[in-house]
Amino acid sequence: MKGHWLLVLSVILLTHAVHGCPDKCLCHTASKTADCKNRGFTEIPPRLPPEIQILQLQNNRIWRINPNSFTGTPLLKILDLSNNSLSSVAPGAFQKLRYLQVLNLTRNLIHYIENKTFSFLPHLKELDLSSNSIIRLPETFGNSTGNITLLSLKHNKLQKMDRVLLESLPNLKVVLFKDNPWQCNCNVFGLKLWLESFLYRGGISDGIICAAPGIRKGKDLLKVPYELFGACPLRTAHVHLASTHHHSWEHRSSPKHGPHGEHGESGRLSCEPKPKPRPVSLRHAIATVVITGVVCGIVCLMMLAAAVYGCAYAAITAKYHKEHLAPVRQHGTPEEKEPFDSSLA
């Protein structure tokens, strides 16, 4: 009997060694979850069960992610690394997680995100980078990140953002910008145009509140008039409005405009007067159409009321003349009858 229990225990220990949890973690087979939060880890724990789909690593002291940290957990769908000590994330750190859908990196110490950091995550839908110290973002998060629907950048140190990154996320539905020191100058003019279009298409955002310059501090970027961006350099203002102005950069720098080459063309462009951008505001256009429609409706109602009043007045006047004046004309007044009667006498 004793030998039987030893055999069972050996089998359990062997199974745990092959497919078990790290010593400080709790694994739940039914939910395919590994609970490793609040365990004091400084790195991704090894020997995680390969079948897990949810990995909870929040509230540890993890400061780096090795290239092979997730090689043994290819089926992960939800990864929570919030409230750790990550200062950077190496490109391709998550490339083994092809089924990952939710990545939470909030409350870390990340200062910047490199190009293609989140490459090869075709199923990623939610990316939370809030409450870090991010000062800049790349032009792209990586290959196959076009399915991201939620992006949170709240509580960072972003002063500007290139609209190219946002345009690389065609399925984006929610983007959060709150509590960043946004510099509302020429560097965010493209972001203003993108956000206006994004909201018009039904997107959701908490808005961009300017931190500088002083005259715009505390103002919503969308409410800063376009005229204040009129002094922006040609490359900042004009290129973003290429769809509105048909003489775009590409058109003016094409080879068929002259054999001057790259230096001659750039010199000519730098000497050209900077045109004042006159972008079309979608919100202003819609407001104008609505106001015009309301005014026209009111005028039409007033004209209809005047016509009804005129018709009613004419009908009443005609009735009055018919009832009171016609008998008088027919029989005459007593004064008119009297001379006639006297003449007969």
Helix-strand blueprint:
Elements: H1 2-19, E1 26-28, E2 33-35, E3 54-56, E4 78-80, E5 102-104, E6 126-128, E7 150-152, H2 163-167, E8 174-176, E9 182-183, H3 189-200, E10 204-205, E11 210-212, H4 234-240, H5 249-252, H6 261-271, H7 282-331, H8 334-344
Parallel strand pairs: 2-3, 3-4, 4-5, 5-6, 6-7, 7-8, 8-10, 9-11
Antiparallel strand pairs: 1-2
Notes on the structure:
By secondary structure, the chain is α/β, with parallel strands linked by helices. Helix content is 34%, strand content 9%. The chain has eight helices and eleven strands. The strands form two sheets. Strands 1-2-3-4-5-6-7-8-10 form a nine-stranded mixed beta sheet, covered by helices on one side. The longest helix is centred in the last third of the chain and has 50 residues, at 282-331. It is elongated. It starts with a helix and ends with a helix. Residues 1-18, 236-278 and 335-345 have low confidence and may be disordered.
Please name the defining characteristics of this protein.
single chain, 345 residues, alpha/beta, nine-stranded mixed β-sheet, 8 helices, 34% helix, 9% strand
